[in-house]
Amino acid sequence: MSSEPVRAADPRVAELIDAERTRRSAAVSLIASESLSTPAVRAALASEFGDKYAEGYPGKRYHGGCEVADELEELAASRARELFGMPYANVQPVSGVSANQAVYAAFAQPGDAVLALALRHGGHQTHGSRANFSGRWFTPASYEVHMSTERIDYDQVREMALFHRPRILVAGGSSYSRHIDLAAMRSIADEAGCILWVDAAHIAGLSIAGIGPSPGEYADVVTVATHKIMRGPRGGVVLGRSEHAEALNRAVYPFLQGGPFLAAVAAKAVAFAESATPEYRAYARQVVDNASALAAALTDGGLRVVSAGTDNHLAVVDVSRLGLTGRAAADALGAAGIVVDKAVLPFDPEPVALGSAIRVGTPTVTALGQTESDMAELATQILDVLAGAGT
């Protein structure tokens, strides 16, 4: 999109837009939660829908002039339902975190127990972190990965679910590189009598491409972030079973939000359409192939990858044997033009602010057309930078 109208109105903001464009083009981004939105998505974000206020739901708006807005939201929701194979979808959440908040609002009361993957073992802050609303307003319990395999311990999940009797069992995370056994999670949730929530923020784009289990087959409720692998706008979606539609709708509006960002809803609709194409499925498959190739090349170069590999778009790489913290490694790579996240290992002795690992992801480099051979070269660059930083 041209920044010339911005330049005429606000030269300083235009300079910053140019600076971000330059930074992005000069760097190699391995941020697992980022990708590149498509031109059609960006055009929808800049459309006239950005000016329209449409508080409420189709046919039940507070404001007038919402006839076209109603058509748009119904289109986006129908595409989401078809894409994820669930009978209910709400496309209004402004982010993945907002979608997660709606799950708590719909199914839990303050103080209720929620069981989720521990943050240090690959979970997410909205799954019970004490620094987050989920850990302050609810009673969090955490399951972990096996110390030896670094994969989820489903026996432990069952034991904890039967002990804590949580209101919600969460399947999902932000730094877990393996497929989650959703059939096992469904069985545990049924035995414990709780809601099964699949937080698919990171893997939604893979599941719709047929990579890994389909959340809609097992979950009571699913949350999705429409950026990341889906290459859509920043935003969220809540999907669920028909019997939960009213509770989830009330949770999103009026409990959590006012009017939806209709330009983002338009961009979500575009992203859903693009995600249903063979081209997108090929992209998603290449994302996983690239992540696997990058993890293998880093392993061949002497680094240890958590769980010995990846099934999805990311890998967590142990840098402690080089005498580095995750933060120091991320800083060194950033200075060399390779952008990664610092991360913690399961059972990491380092504090979260430092960590002993980095998290790498391949959605962005794949969107730029890179393949497995490029990952081998990129791994060599990473290894060279880290070797220098660790001496």
UniProtKB/TrEMBL annotation:
EC number: 2.1.2.1
Entry keyword annotation includes Nucleus: no
Site (Plays an important role in substrate specificity): H227
UniProt pathway: One-carbon metabolism; tetrahydrofolate interconversion; Amino-acid biosynthesis; glycine biosynthesis; glycine from L-serine: step 1/1
Any one GO MF annotation of this record: methyltransferase activity
Cellular component terms per the entry's GO annotation: cytosol
Cited InterPro entries: PyrdxlP-dep_Trfase, PyrdxlP-dep_Trfase_major, PyrdxlP-dep_Trfase_small, Ser_HO-MeTrfase, Ser_HO-MeTrfase-like, SHMT-like_dom
Domain Serine hydroxymethyltransferase-like: 7-381
Reaction equation(s) it catalyzes: (6R)-5,10-methylene-5,6,7,8-tetrahydrofolate + glycine + H2O = (6S)-5,6,7,8-tetrahydrofolate + L-serine
GO biological process terms on file: glycine biosynthetic process from serine; methylation; tetrahydrofolate interconversion
Keyword tags: Amino-acid biosynthesis, Cytoplasm, Methyltransferase, One-carbon metabolism, Pyridoxal phosphate, Transferase
Family: Belongs to the SHMT family.
Function: Catalyzes the reversible interconversion of serine and glycine with tetrahydrofolate (THF) serving as the one-carbon carrier. This reaction serves as the major source of one-carbon groups required for the biosynthesis of purines, thymidylate, methionine, and other important biomolecules. Also exhibits THF-independent aldolase activity toward beta-hydroxyamino acids, producing glycine and aldehydes, via a retro-aldol mechanism.
PANTHER family per the UniProt record, alphabetical: SERINE HYDROXYMETHYLTRANSFERASE, SERINE HYDROXYMETHYLTRANSFERASE 1
NCBIfam families attached to this UniProt entry: PRK00011.1
The name this protein goes by in its record: Serine hydroxymethyltransferase
The organism of origin for this protein: Gordonia araii NBRC 100433
Lineage, broadest ranks: Bacteria, Bacillati, Actinomycetota, Actinomycetes, Mycobacteriales
Gene: glyA
